[in-house]
Write a structure and sequence with these properties.
about 675 residues; alpha/beta; Substrate Binding Domain Of Dnak, Chain:A, Domain 2; Rossmann fold; 3 domains; 6-stranded parallel sheet; about 50% helix
């Protein structure tokens, strides 16, 4: 891979960065270049868990000889530091999920009229999983019972999370054998913080086992709960067209941008900004309309359901302000750079914080709860309209944008392979078994200013799909793919290998499927579970020809995600230096021991070429272990025929669908 000396692989972003340099404006890219990472903390060799430190465990023989003031060795310190990242990431996702469940409860009990249950079918599906009776009952009564049942997962002290049973039985058996089944979300986070305090747990393997238990509380708890409840309230995503990059901003309209991770306020803003009353208000201020856009995962939430355009991921937030076209940038929680407030002072942009959990000095605060979301949304929309006349010509105006298709939920991926009555994962399993699809990669994680931002995503996408690997993407990884133009079916024709191209053409999909925000990594877990249940490949998640990659990660949430995939049986590769790299013992546990126990491993690899080869090695090794046809480009065997949806409607339904053979309704 050849890398140009640029800050971002996105040419639009690079244009804005050049403009910023000319106008002497600082960005995260400049701060990353000027502030080098601490070489001791970067590899996990610094302990600051008490006031006797910080202790730096460095030296030629640090692993064997160097200890902190209390006597803790390097492996203990590295493991404890890593666990605290898992706990923080799990807390972030799961606190988000708790808010979503509380909103479902408020909607179901009539405590709020701003939010209502939208997807009754999804509600009934989740009620069935939770063993809640739903037939013949009022929808809101079912919604209340589902919300109360899910709230149990946060405070439960013993037993197992409700969604543990959604995993394949053999995967569950592995978890129980090694003692990593999560009890309650809050309990696991609290216990992790306790174990990593001064003078408690010092055994690296024992510590990391608790880390996996905590991470599973995130993946099969917080993340999965959030995805399900958001679908219930606002609709399960299905393919929808949208656009990406800075060209989404309009010079003759009010530009209101939602940024962060929580969808409720953004959903109401979609409705408010399209209302006749608010459009008339915008026109009274001289604008031709209101253009709602997004950044980061709040953007993904409304993109997946409404086609709201996105300006990109984490590293684009300052650059969006620098276009000079954003009238209001409203933020909720997670991945918000406080630098945007000081930067906005050079422009007309107003930064509005909206969560009771997050304030930024200098920003306007318009807090909302479950009961006054619409009222707050109206205030924010009016503030954006009021600020439109203050817009100046200052800024780097970008007009380029990329089309994309998002909205590939678990339910739609199942439907697209066979229609309403015969939806299954059999066609995908067959395509993998026959070698048309070499394997599947989950490409996720953040974009990072310490590398050419989004450049690693672009390199990996090109190489993976060229070699017939289907990609499912989430979060800022999806934003990186969207701004690069990789989220369209046409990309399959232009860039994909012959086998993957055939599959994409038959179904009519891009070779990169946008599954949603970072909490929607849980959709990958349910997809993998469905593939295992379908048969023909592995009968558990472990052993599948699948890999998870986060090439530019920066957030603790990404660490929690990586760990719940490794614990579930998926090998995981993260870019950059390892945060446990100082300890050979901890590294061995996370790679070799976890692979032996769970079929999953956690690697850190800064070289993208090595990252790619590692992914191919894992996928091809899994194919060999499953005794699947050896992958050879363009050679698919011929004993299996890939059928499109029309062809599948003609076949006799397999056992388990009750003999239904009606056409799609």
């Amino acid at each position: 891979m050849t890398t140009k000396p640029v800050k971002s692989a996105n040419t639009n972003a690079e244009d804005i960065l050049k403009w910023a340099e000319e106008h002497k404006m600082e960005t995260c890219f400049d701060r990353a270049a000027n502030m080098k990472a601490c070489p001791i903390g970067e590899v996990g060799a610094c302990c600051k868990n008490c006031h006797m430190g910080p202790c730096r465990l460095v030296g030629k023989n640090a692993e064997e000889e160097v200890v902190g003031v209390c006597g803790a060795g390097l492996a203990t310190v590295a493991a404890r530091n890593f666990l605290r990242m898992i706990a923080a990431g799990t807390a972030a996702h799961s606190d988000h999920a708790r808010g979503m469940v509380e909103t479902l409860l408020a909607a179901s009990t009539g405590e709020t009229e701003d939010v209502k249950i939208t997807d009754v079918k999804k509600l009934y599906k989740i009620a069935g999983i939770l063993e809640i009776e739903f037939e013949g009952r009022p929808v809101n009564d079912v919604g209340k019972d589902v919300a109360l049942k899910l709230l149990e997962d946060f405070g439960r002290q013993n037993g197992e999370l409700n969604y543990i049973k959604r995993a394949p039985k053999k995967t569950q058996d592995r978890w129980r054998k090694h003692g990593i089944v999560s009890r309650g979300i809050d309990r696991e986070v609290v216990e992790t913080m306790h174990r990593t305090a001064i003078g408690v747990d010092h055994d690296p393997d024992h510590l990391l086992t608790q880390g996996l238990r905590t991470a599973l509380a995130d993946g099969w708890g917080g993340c999965m709960i959030s995805s399900d409840v958001t679908d219930i309230l606002f609709g399960t995503p299905k393919p929808i067209q949208a656009e990406a990059s800075f060209g989404i901003f309009k010079e003759d309209e009010v530009n209101l941008v939602v940024h962060g991770h929580e969808p409720t306020l953004a959903e109401i803003l979609v409705d408010v900004c399209s209302s006749t009353e608010m459009l008339d208000y915008a026109k009274s201020k001289g604008a031709n309309g209101i253009n709602l856009g997004g950044m980061c995962c709040t953007a993904n939430e409304v993109l997946m359901r409404h086609g709201i355009p996105t300006a990109g991921g984490f590293t684009n937030q300052e650059l969006g302000v620098m276009t000079g076209l954003i009238d209001v940038l409203t933020v909720d929680v997670q991945c918000i750079m406080p630098a945007i407030v000081k930067l906005s002072e050079k422009f007309h942009t107003t930064i509005i914080t909206t969560s009771p959990k997050a304030m930024i000095p200098g920003a306007v605060h318009m807090e909302h709860g479950e009961h006054d979301v619409r009222e707050t949304a109206i205030k924010i929309a009016k503030a954006a309209c009021d600020n439109y006349p203050n817009r100046t010509t200052l800024g780097s105006h970008i007009t380029k944008k990329s089309p994309l298709v998002g909205g590939f939920s678990h339910e739609y991926i199942e439907y697209m392979q066979g229609g309403k009555w015969r939806g299954s994962f059999r066609p995908l399993n067959d395509a993998i078994a026959a070698g048309r699809v070499r394997g599947v990669v989950g490409l996720a994680g953040c974009d990072n200013p310490r590398v050419p931002s989004t450049g690693l995503h672009r390199f990996l996408v090109q190489e993976l799909i060229k070699n017939d690997v289907l990609i499912v993407s989430t979060g800022c990884g999806s934003a990186a793919c969207g701004t690069a133009g990789y989220l369209t079916p046409e990309t399959a024709l232009e860039m994909a290998g012959p086998g993957l191209r055939e599959v994409c053409e038959a179904i009519g999909i891009p070779p990169v499927l946008h599954l949603g925000s970072c909490v929607d990594n849980s959709r990958i877990l349910t997809i993998a579970s469905a593939m295992a249940a379908e048969g023909g490949l592995s009968d558990e998640i472990g052993g599948m020809p699948a890999v998870g990659i986060a090439p530019e990660w920066m957030s603790e949430k990404a660490i929690a995600i990586g760990c719940y995939f490794a614990a579930s049986g998926v090998p995981v590769i993260f870019g950059g230096e390892s945060p446990v790299g100082a300890s050979k013992e901890v590294t061995k546990i996370m790679t070799e021991v976890w692979m032996e126990r769970y079929f999953g491993a956690f690697h850190f690899e800064p070289d993208p070429e090595k990252m790619l080869q590692m992914a191919f090695d894992y996928i091809d090794g899994a194919r060999e272990a499953l005794k699947l046809r050896k992958y050879e480009p363009g050679k698919f065997g011929g004993e299996r025929i890939l059928m499109d949806m029309a062809a599948r409607r003609e076949i006799t339904p397999h056992a388990g669908v009750g003999g239904i053979n009606e056409s799609e309704g």
